[in-house]
User: Fold Porin from Candidatus Seongchinamella marina.
Amino acid sequence: MNRHLQILPLAVSLAIGTLSVNAATDGDTIRMLEQQLEQQRIMLEQQQQVLETMQQELQQLKTVQTEQVVKAQHHAQPRELESSAEIASNTSGGGFGFDVYGFVMADAVYDFKRVDPDWNDTLRVSTIPTQDGQYGQDGEFVFSVRQSRLGIKADYDTPVGKVTALLEGELFGVGGDAGQTTPRLRHAWATLNNFGMGQTWSNFMDADVFPNTIDYWGPTGMVFYRNQQIRYTFPMDSSEFSIALENPDTALTVGKFRDACTSAVLDESCDSALEDVIRKHNDIPDLTLRYRSDNDWGHWQLAGIARELGYERLDTGRKDSEFGWGVNASTVINTFGQDKLKLQLVYGEGIGNYMNDGGVDLAPAKNQLVGNSAEAVPILGVVAYYDHYWNDQWSSSVGWSSINLDTTKGQAGGEFEEGQIAQINLLHYPTEGVMIGGELLWGERVDVSGDDGYDVRAQLSLKVNFPRN
Assistant:
């Protein structure tokens, strides 16, 4: 306000000057006009200084705002995991929004030991051999681009509410495409207001627990599953509650009886083994519930699951099922600056299909073929990581994760029983949208028989994001 009041003396001077001209001689008038012009010149220079000061302050504010945006982008997780809530509500705030995003990521890995060749560009603990020389002599160098990703998001307003759509894929082949660099669907998710259908993170999962690491597979004891589902979310201020029906998919093993002849039970000719005739049978979707609370210090989440684990025999038509259940508690705590502590504890029976690695849902209960039945396998998973940001351009993540199966008497000695992984890295963000860094990993696998194996590897990665709107 004071800057603008400086204009008032100028107006007063002009008025006084006009009256003086009418009352004075020509000489006096000239001198008075010269004095007034000098005063006006001085005041104009002062106003110019005020304008320059205001422009400098405005430029400083814009610079600070830009630095804050860049800092936030540097601190984004390289894997760019999005929570289910973010996927459902990542909109432009009205009208129509459209965004193409993704990144190219190249990995160079040196494995001091060896793992299953189909998984040699990531440390998936369940692929570590427990027999010397199982996959060849120690030492392997691997290049990979399979983490590269591309996604499309859209959102728009309609007379009945907000609509969103997400389609995202990567190049990491799994299942029948294991070991291949090939397109793979990650998300195909659509929402109308609070209702969603498609494929995205399971409602039983907390995606934000995934640490700021560069190895693809990540914590072995984490609930990590993208699933087809139908979901409804109830927003509650800074919290939300969601319920979902998810695609059932029982992970079962016939254990030590996989090669047993069916005639041992049916008194028939041995034309097939039990592994050939025992199959999963899923006719009821999994039920998942989730409550999440966001706070100034971070968030906490509690999720539960209930499922029918069905199985059948193709030769006799006999079918049966076991009940599966689980509870997943997780939190992300903001500590100092941008640092985050990430914790998860999950326990249940028959939830192996939802675990990141090594899980099995059903296994033979007894160490005998006659009169045997299936049992839901208990599982315990732990995740503990700390993401630290040294400054705007450097970060590190360190942590450990484990999974333990309370295996049954009917499981084979070479089957997975427990595993753990530990990671530490140093990542550099030289400019917006670029990350380069290295990571050291250690993993261990233990079989039902007690045989174990470990692996140590080093990874160097370069990731370049596509520019976003």
Notes: The CA atoms of residues 23 and 392 lie 70 Å apart. The domain at 75-465 is CATH 2.40.160.10 (Porin). The chain has two domains: 2-71, 75-465.
